Amino acid sequence: MSKLHASGTGTLTDRYVVEVVRRIPTGQRGDVADELRATIADTIEARGPAAPETVEREVLTEMGDPIRLAARYADRPLALIGPRLYPTYVRLLTVLLSTVLPVVTTTSAVLDVLDGQGVGEVIGGAVGAVFSVGAQMIAWLTVVFALIERSGKRADTVGGAWTPDDLPERRVPKERGTAAYAGVAWHALLIALIVWQHTAQPYQSDAGTRLDVLNPGLWSGWIWPILAGLVSLVTLDAIRAVQVWTRSLAIWSAGAQAAFTLPLAWVLHRQELFNPAFLSDANGGWQTPQFVYTVAVVGVLAVGAGEVVKRFREARD
User: Fold this and answer.
1) How far is CA 164 from CA 55, 101, 161, 169, in A?
2) 8 Å CB contact between 186 and 178
3) Nearest Cα residue to 231 out of 193, 260, 272
4) Residues of 47-72 as b/e, b for ≥16 C-beta within 10 angstroms?
5) d(CA 93, CA 87)
6) Is the Cβ–Cβ distance between 155 and 84 less than 8 Å?
7) How does pLDDT run across 139-156, given as a tens digit for each residue?
8) Under 8 Å between Cβ of 101 and 137
9) pLDDT tens digits for range 30-84
């Protein structure tokens, strides 16, 4: 390996070579240093013997920044996210900021309202959620793509190679987007109410005992698929509001609707949705007739099936 001058006492060529090779893998440094010195010397010699120091400076200027040259030798990107991955990065970031962020912000605001916070606190919390959650999404997605960039992974293995099928389709009709946002708000409100009635126990019996409205036993079983279905519906409604609805999304929506509707219909059928202590105290001992639960089950199933049919019809439009 050629001896390199790390101080400013060497020639411009020596200092330039040091700046290049110290940024590349150790095993390549000797060969690259020899190659650079030979290239610089040959170029200077080809330009004639007059004012060699001036010619040397001109040659090094033309070769450019040693950091950029070292990146070419090491096949290492200079950009945090290079042009190979940038389109995929932007598309994914757009989806996250336009779907997940509004859902998180809305849920946070609804929970603040149910906790009895004032208008200013609710607005402040929502704004804080937008900035904090949005910043986290941008930061972590950027870190992931920067690591992928430096791993040498091919761009077409991250999100798939671009094809004309990726071109954006027609815009979502305004009325459909409005209905989708209403769906986001409704399902997010249901989630908040289910959690709130369990944590706050808003009903107080005549004896002064605070009670859940829904059956506390559900938290050991059926409430979880119901909540999972609602969260999925919130996410899919948010997607429906900002992009064209496809058949594959309609299939996912049908699965989410089933996860929410079927467990709900089952616990209604078994008359296990409401807290027995709440019903006893609120009804004064009056028993709810069986046909009321039967009608409720049929209604829940009918509404769920109707929503699935509408989602598939939208996919065909």
Assistant:
1) 51, 28, 10, 11
2) no
3) 260
4) eeeeeeeebbeebbeebeebeebbbe
5) 10
6) yes
7) 888 888 777 776 655 444
8) yes
9) 888 888 888 888 888 887 766 777 888 888 888 888 877 777 776 665 567 766 6
Residue 7 has a pLDDT of 35
Max avg pLDDT among 133-147, 172-186, 278-292: 133-147
Beta-carbon contacts of residue 232 (< 8 Å; ≥ 6 apart): 252, 255, 256, 259, 260
Burial of 192 (0-12, 13-18, 19+ CB in 10 A): buried
Q: Which two tokens stand for residue 270?
A: 């078994």
How many angstroms separate the CA atoms of 93 and 85, rounded? Answer: 12
Q: Are 212 and 201 contacting, i.e. CB atoms less than 8 angstroms apart? A: yes
Closest CA to 76 of 138, 28, 6, 17: 28
**Residue 183 in tokens:** 């769906």
